[in-house]
Amino acid sequence: MKKEAQGPFRPFEKTAILGVGLLGGSLALALRKKQLSKRISGYGRTEGNLKKALRAGMIDEYHMDPRKAVKGADLVVLATPVGMFRGLASEIKDAVEEGSIQTDVGSVKGALVSELESILPNFIGSHPISGGERPGVDNAVDGLFEGVRCIVTVTKAADKNALERMELMWRALGGNVELMDPDKHDMIYALMSHLPHVLAYSLVNTVGSMDGKSIKYAGQGFKDTTRIALSSPEVWRDICLLNGKHVIASIKAFRQELDKIECAIAGNNPAALEAEFGRSRALREKIDRKD
Amino acid sequence: MKKEAQGPFRPFEKTAILGVGLLGGSLALALRKKQLSKRISGYGRTEGNLKKALRAGMIDEYHMDPRKAVKGADLVVLATPVGMFRGLASEIKDAVEEGSIQTDVGSVKGALVSELESILPNFIGSHPISGGERPGVDNAVDGLFEGVRCIVTVTKAADKNALERMELMWRALGGNVELMDPDKHDMIYALMSHLPHVLAYSLVNTVGSMDGKSIKYAGQGFKDTTRIALSSPEVWRDICLLNGKHVIASIKAFRQELDKIECAIAGNNPAALEAEFGRSRALREKIDRKD
User: Fold this and answer.
1) Residue B289 pLDDT > 70, yes or no?
2) Does any CB of chain B come closer than 8 Å to the CB of residue A143?
3) A281–B230: do the CB atoms touch at under 8 Å?
4) Degrees (nearest 5) of the Cα angle A161, A165, A171?
5) What's the total number of domains in chain B?
6) What residues in B contact A139, CB-CB < 8 Å?
7) What ipTM does this complex have?
8) Is A258 part of the contact surface with chain B (CB cutoff 8 Å)?
9) Do the domain assignments include residue A70?
10) B9–chain A Cβ distance below 8 A for any pair
């Protein structure tokens, strides 16, 4: 077990947040509240959104050009939908300050981390697993990272000091930091997060295809099961495509489990059906026991 | 639109609750609190459970023989797992009092209502859509039916007075009563409740099959999506088998929606994928707008 990075956190002089939405905005608020960054600049595609973040005191300045946003920043955070990371990294690579750290808050790591490492001088991948299906700066809150798991990726290319800085920063923001290989991250989160999103979206679409008016009969079970179908289609489009290999493997594994249950129903096999449900409940109970 | 039944509710002399679990126990508590039944008797398979209900003041008496429990009762409620309803109805049919009403709280209606109507003298189907995946009398609460939708089934054979009594009772307990054809009920709830349970159980089993240790990485999305996998395997086994036709039709429709999303991922088609997710979100938002 690797020893945890220790010590007080020396604040950043300036953080550039590229994409001031739910995660970027919440990170800005949290960095300010914990005094981890003296200044914060924002970049985004929609000026109205950046003005809102400025008025809300999340950021000190904003720019419609990401190269201007990263000027003077010793920390740069990619917080747009993950599909834009590569393009954005290429755009800023010659503008980032020497000695600065670049990180992200994206839900996909794997090959994307290698690519970003090859484009940017000092990239460390981060993924705070913070709930919140309501996208946008309006839903940003300073406590979004308190008590949530935060994966920081470890690779051969990663700079040890930068890695330790990121570990300390997320911990100072309240995150439970776990260091992880990028591909292992993608395999786990395909199963634990990306697949559930695909299923929630598919379930609501099933209602839409069969009888959209039935939606009014949604009870608490349906609401909970499909809450994440409220998530941003753009964000989840990018995540599913960038982690396509693992997401498809998870869908295939899911189909096999669904098959078993369908067969037990079609074959009118109460023992098999109860065994499938019981196996599921036993594993699901392990989550709540730890809560 | 049928006119709503009106008027104050004349209490039952005695209610027999057959199956004192989450729903039966909550119904006993609610009937008492609202003074809708002077006495309440309980029947169950497990004496320890009935003693607990007696000590908790839910019931005034209990019996291990359902025929004794229904003696003197002008209301009989089937509240065991639905798979036991037919056997239980046959057992009590010669013991129920003349002029009494028999109802249930089961999640399946359809053909089951016809069967129960043919066995019992005066059966009216009920289905209060009350959340609560934690089964058992320990989780019973008196407010379980407050503000929840409650389906009361309408059939040609149904006695008009008994139907009105049931409508009034559920409304007095705080339910939003809706009269519905039994088969329409089963089609809607296969889609809106039974399918989500099947998917939640299947999703947790997918984690179990791929890498059970990953369960510790469950975030809020996974927890919400699979909360109903904590439901009783026995209860949901019965529901899925008794509503097999509609549940399987819903699973088949779901597979088609999952196929569309999988194809968009496999074909690296961002526009198609975003369209599927966007269509889903738009329909899902209709629920919360009404809340």
Assistant:
1) no
2) no
3) yes
4) 145
5) 2
6) none
7) 0.89
8) yes
9) yes
10) no
